[in-house]
Amino acid sequence: MPPRLAELRALLHRANSAYYVDAAPFMSDGEYDRLLAELVALEAEHGCDDPNSPTQRLGDAATGFAKVAHAVPMLSIENTYTLETFNAWHARCVAALGTEPMLVCEPKVDGLAISLRYEDGALVQAATRGDGEHGDEVTGNARAVRAIPTKLRGSFPSLLEVRGEIFMPNESFERINAERQRANEVLFVNARNATSGTLKSLDPKLVASRGLSFVAHGRGACEGDPSRGHWEFLANLRAWGVPTNDDASRCASADDARECIESFKNRRSGLPYGVDGMVVRVDAFAQQAELGAASRAPRWIIAFKYPAERRETQLLRVDWQVGKGGTLTPRATMKPVFVGGTTVSHATLHNIDEIRRKDLRIGDVVLVEKAGEVIPQVVESLHERRDGSEQTIDPPTVCPSCASAVEQDGPKLYCVNAACPAQFRERLKWFVGRDQMDIDGLGDKIIDQLVEAGLVNHFADVFALDPARLAALEKSESSGQGKVRKDGSLAEVARIGAKTAERIVRSADAARGRGLQRLLASLGVRHLGEAASKTLARAFPNLDAVLGANVATLEALPDFGSITAESLVRDFSAPTLRDEIERLRAAGVDLSSQSHRPEGASAAGPLAGKVVVLTGELPGWDRRSLTAAVEALGAKVSGSVSKKTDLVIAGAAAGSKLTKARELGVIVWEGDEALRELAALGAAVKA
């Protein structure tokens, strides 16, 4: 390796640490860019490839995100909105420990939780929080965030998982929205949503252009960490080149922590990034371990959430949006107002009963806040400010999209036309979703394009998409930066390339074989979610049998009441749904159940009637397919290990569930043994 090449790599790594960790930059952005360009040229000339080189922050576009298991679960944090509740939490800690612990307070940055795994000082994996047990691997995108070090400095642990927050600074958010407005693109609602959308991009170059940042606030798995507590861990992180929050503080008592919470409340609005609370935790790791965790959250940490900021504005109009089940939801348009760090002009009003309860009228001066600092909502109308010109908000009598009749069920309004265009668009987005038919590549923007182009008018049309026509859609429909829909709203245009088109078609072909349970859950029928679909797939051999069931038959099923049974029989008999099903049948979609169990029959083998817990990753299996296979063998799959657990099936990166199973003496099938046992029971690889 040429000396200059090694020198440039080391220099640019130091420049990143100086800027993001030490807050003492020693070179300008222009000089950094010039040296980076020189390094790119040298690496190309000498064929020197290093995944942790500063040049690799802009890698090739990904084709999708793999699911990875967290070695240590990323648990939730208990929230509190009052000092009284905080005091009660602290009192519980003192009672359990028998002494008053040292505490650490850190601002709760409003971003996207991430876990960074370093092995021998090199970044090898970045994963989103996901469901706490599994997340999406976004390593390529994480490398594109300059604040995230790709190599640690100094004397670091051999294995270190850094937990933290990727966020978008206010300046970056405002710049991006200004650019999108000039290009007639849909604006991001807030910096947190913009961060999430950016990190889900398949192009690291886009991620790099968005100006994301990162701050660390915890640890996962580690080997060789000398830290005895969180405060010391934060200091060590900075020594290793990982940025932490400068506003963190160590408190010797609850009084000190309360003072920290109160003093920070007035400073947070002036920060260059969004903050929605203050996280307070017991400092010493030994005391954290002693306090332990409940089912979803550790007992040694709590997040104090500040009351939402409120601002006055005027309610200008109310539009009714049609959802996938035909639900009409009122959406308020208001004079733009800056609240909670962003400019707000729209908010959901939930339903007509909520409008009447708050006595909202067009023209009212209203108070707006952000629920959880994220979702805008109208809190109340200032009735005393009325001048008599305000107009009552009446519910629509016909659907705003198709002009069909509207029915009311409790506080909700429904369009009765299952063929309603607006309703179909939302139902289609549901149909192709990951937890339904799971057709990869069909995001919201691409679906909007397909519907607008007339390529998809029924669910079955998804299975007839032609990759060449999909790729051509980029040229015919994506010539501009934005597109106006038929209803007048602005649609953001997605870019469909040849590879994406081929991936969509392959995924749609695979989705034909998902089976009855997934298909039922995908249809968007009221009262037919994942649990009800699973029950029906166990009770009936195919979709025809489900459609032929009467109310009494459905009422006899577990957890099916008369309202659900009557609603399903009515919806299943609708001509529009029957037509969709026949089209799906003609498209070759599997309508049979993969988990049907005739009445009185039981699965053979050691899983019949067993309570089974799955943890980690098994080669050849994804979690959904493994769950279905185990349930087909008669087992009940549980999410947690207890004394009632009969068996734990563990793969790579199994976490605390495996540890607890061993402590309780539960039978464990692990790794290759699990694969052998599953194969012996007739479970075929599905992934």
Major sheet attributes: 7 strands, antiparallel
Task: Please report the total strand number as a whole number.
Answer: 26
Stretches where pLDDT falls below 50 for ≥5 residues? 475-494
Amount of helix = 25-40%
- Share of residues in strands: 15-25%
Shape: globular
How many domains make up the 3D coordinates?
Answer: 6
Please give the radius of gyration in angstroms. Answer: 27 Å
CATH H-tier superfamily of the largest domain: DNA ligase/mRNA capping enzyme
| Amino- and carboxy-terminal Cα gap | 42 Å
CATH C-level label of the largest domain: Alpha Beta
Secondary structure class reads alpha+beta
Oligomeric nature of the chains = single chain
Number of helical stretches of at least 4 residues: 24
CATH architecture of the largest domain: 2-Layer Sandwich
**Fold-level CATH name of the largest domain:** D-amino Acid Aminotransferase, Chain A, domain 1
Provide the residue-averaged pLDDT.
84
